[in-house]
Write the structure tokens for this entry.
Amino acid sequence: MKTLFSFVALSALLSGCVTHVQPHASPATEPFAQPRLLSDFNQQMTATRQQAEAGEQRAQQQYGGWLASAGQRDAAQPLLKAAAESGQPEAQYQLGKLLLDHQPGDGKQWLERAAEQGNSAAAQQLARYHRSGNPLLQDKQQAFNWLLQAAQQGDAQAQNDVGAAYSRGFGVKKDAARAVEWYRKAAEQGNALAQFNLAGAYQAGEGVKAQPLLAYAWYNVAVQNSDDRHLTQIAEQMKLRMYASATRGGKAAQARQLAQKITQQYVKPRKEPMP
């Protein structure tokens, strides 16, 4: 196979993320850590490219994925297609995602093949595009089915979205109790939006008995887990509202104790920023 893309250029595009990853080292060895890591990365890139050009299917998927991430769509497509045609679900997903905007029919078919093999990312991608307004893909029932498949495989975002679908009756009969079940699954995996939605259900008594103390506790967890400023602000407002309600009912201490317990279980540890 003819070389499809300059290895040097691809390495420059992709190695930028590696330069920030430095292993812990003593002052004496630290200056040599980064070049050694980049050398290992370049060797891996060279080996993968050579294997892909020789027709090794896993290497085609990996190298094609690297090309796609570097914005080299035309170079990535034949490699991903070769791997996808061999039945690799990850390659099928990557190819479908690559094609979906410009060749939605082909993209949809590859995503479906990946999803049918259990690729939850492909199922979520299909659900997202079914809701996007694209005439070829717009189908509420099918969108829900793909979401449900991803959710059943444990994808927390899909679980939240299935809960939202049940809550609104999107592609499925409205069912507040089922919505809470799926919100809870995602919330217990640390999904901040699901934690917010679960808190809202406890606040409003939709699909579950109204429990303001639990609403307060889950809003508190959502505040701490959210990386979205808008969601954080709204959750903080609702949290304060629920705490005020608990205070008026003489249950402020109980609210704090419950929030502490749930926080210990479901607040994700924050990653330390790189030095």
Summary: The chain has a mean pLDDT of 77. The CA atoms of residues 163 and 179 lie 4 Å apart.
